[in-house]
Write a structure and sequence with these properties.
The protein is built from twelve helices and 40 strands. Helices cover about 20% and strands about 30% of the residues. Strands 21, 22, 23, 24, 25, 26, 27, 28, 29, 30 and 32 form an eleven-stranded parallel β-sheet that branches. The two termini are about 45 Å apart. Among the domains are: about 100 residues, no CATH class; about 140 residues; about 70 residues, no CATH class. The longest helix has 18 residues. With about 550 residues, it is an alpha/beta fold.
Length: about 550
């Protein structure tokens, strides 16, 4: 079979469907996609709100809670205890399928009345102010993370302790303002580092200690800008550097970093794979921030998946899944679903758990099967009705598409998709997406100035309202966070958590591959460094020869 070139129904850009893609679509019995991979990802991420939390009341027990849904949400919002309880039955919202209407219209109607869990937690201790967090203790605003202790603002991280302001770190301790790091200790402003300790402003490095403002080093000690110093010289120079303005330091670090050759892709123990920041993968194509994938394509931030395509943050024992966002764990042959766990042979599920052989349901959280729009059927009736609905959706052009962004329960600008596919208010509303304007009360003058030194920062700073020097939004520092900055000997950030996160995000390349040639040997390569970037990019062999 030849490569099939198609035009995206959403952005009008051309994209390709390979023979391997076609074989997968045939295997899971779905039509070929009408949207390009990027627009498919945009849809999935529009259903994931990670960082916008609100104070409100549980609509069942009436206690005050933290929720991902604001008070104007059209559906009831329950605290996790009430949502998981047997005090309500999702089947009471069940309804017959109407063949005179589109499926997505009926799914939206169901989603607008079915109660939602305020946040999604699993086995946490003293970590209420989070969503999508599991097995963690004393952790704050760290979405998508698990096995965290005493951590703050650590997104999509795991097995970390005493860390703050990080994105995608693993098995780290006393690490701050870092991204894509593993097994690092007592460091800050680290990018793509492994097994580094007592380092700062270091990128693309491994097994190094006491290094400052370095790039592409390994097994090094007492280096500054990749140059060797004595221990005494190193200590003196670093003390001088750390007196500088943090923004000036970061600018100098980035200017130095681009002078050192970059590896075409960040892969570790991978075979026949492409993308960036992938580990222990085989036949994983165009995948990013993943490990333990096999025969997968267009997957981001997922773990332990096999024979699947178009997954976003959907991981652990996944097989034959397609167009799924969030959730995961023991899913096989699950399609077009959001935040669904252990629900095999199902399609179009929103926040369902242990629901097998079902179609178009919301909020089912007890073991069940053969449900459509939250209504229970016999096995034979379910199979017949499902087939009729799929045929109906094929006629309306809906089957094979993920939920449209317009029916997301969240405003577009409060979801993860705004980070990667930003729209203005006018653009979002013109497309029929929801939008939430910022609250003017969140942009008041600061009540205190932030000292540049943590040693000069009083305990009373936790009682003050601070204002972000970048966007003006107010933020606060909690006592536990202040204690961690003192332990790290770092000043309190002068930017709000949102601007800190966006700053970390800007340090990562786009999730896109460009065809280039190695700057040293001219071998063809695919890389996340676009041709207009100023970095020198090497293939694997040339890069390793330079570093080691």
């Amino acid at each position: 079979m030849d490569m099939n070139t198609k035009t995206c129904k959403n952005c009008s850009q051309q994209f390709q469907v390979s023979p391997e893609d076609k074989s997968f679509y045939v295997k899971i019995n779905v039509p070929e996609p009408t949207h390009c991979p990027a627009c498919r990802m945009q849809r999935r991420l529009a259903f994931r709100n990670e960082r916008n939390l609100f104070r409100r009341q549980c609509d069942m027990c009436k206690k005050q809670i933290v929720a991902t849904f604001d008070t104007d949400a059209p559906f009831p919002v329950f605290c996790p205890e009430c949502w998981w309880s047997d005090k309500w039955d999702p089947s009471q919202y069940g309804r017959d399928f109407d063949f005179g209407r589109t499926f997505f219209e009926q799914m939206e109607d169901l989603m607008r009345v079915t109660p939602k869990s305020s946040v999604l937690h699993l086995n946490n201790e003293n970590s209420d102010y989070n969503t999508l967090l599991a097995y963690s203790k004393n952790t704050y605003m760290s979405p998508g993370s698990y096995f965290m202790q005493d951590c703050f603002y650590c997104r999509k991280s795991q097995y970390c302790k005493d860390c703050v302001n990080n994105n995608l770190i693993d098995h780290c301790e006393l690490v701050a303002s870092s991204v894509n790091c593993k097994e690092c200790y007592n460091g800050h402003h680290l990018i793509n580092c492994r097994s580094c300790s007592d380092c700062a402003y270091v990128v693309d490095s491994s097994a190094s200690q006491y290094c400052f403002m370095c790039a592409g080093i390994a097994n090094s000690k007492f280096k500054i800008k990749n140059r060797q110093y004595s221990q005494e010289e190193y200590k003196k120079l670093v003390e001088e550097y750390m007196r500088k303005n943090p923004d000036d330091l970061m600018r100098e670090f980035q200017e130095f970093s681009v002078t050192v050759p970059k590896k075409y892709q960040n892969q570790l123990n991978c075979e026949h794979s492409s993308g960036d920041y992938i580990q222990s993968c085989k036949n994983a194509i165009d995948c990013y921030d993943c490990f333990d994938l096999e025969d997968c394509k267009y997957v981001i931030e997922s773990v332990n998946a096999k024979d699947s395509m178009d997954l976003s943050m959907h991981d652990k024992d996944i097989e034959l899944c397609y167009e799924c966002s969030s959730g995961g764990e023991s899913n096989k042959n699950l399609k077009f679903s959001y935040c669904t766990i252990a629900s095999p042979n199902s399609e179009y599920l929103y926040s369902c758990f242990y629901l097998a052989d079902s179609f178009g349901c919301d909020g089912i959280h007890t073991r069940s099967k053969n449900q459509i729009l939250n209504k229970k059927y016999s096995e034979s009736d379910y199979k017949l009705m499902r087939q009729q609905i799929v045929e109906h959706m094929m006629r309306t052009g809906e089957y094979g598409e993920f939920f449209p962004i317009s029916i997301s329960p969240f405003p577009y600008n409060q979801t993860l998709t705004q980070d990667y596919f930003p729209l203005t208010r006018e653009q979002a509303l013109a497309k029929g997406y929801k939008w939430k304007d910022p609250d003017p009360k969140q942009y008041m003058p600061a009540t205190a100035q932030i000292p540049y030194s943590i040693e000069e920062t009083p305990d009373s700073i936790t009682q003050e309202i601070l204002a972000c020097e970048a966007c003006g939004k107010n933020y606060k520092v909690i006592a536990q966070e202040l204690n961690l900055y003192r332990k790290l000997h770092l000043p309190i950030p002068r930017k709000c958590p949102e601007c800190r996160y966006l700053g970390l995000l800007s340090l990562k390349n786009q999730r896109q591959l460009w065809n280039r040639t190695c700057a040293k040997c001219d071998m063809p390569i695919q890389t996340t460094y676009s041709p207009d970037r100023q970095e020198t990019v090497y293939c694997e062999k040339c890069y390793l020869g330079t570093i080691y």
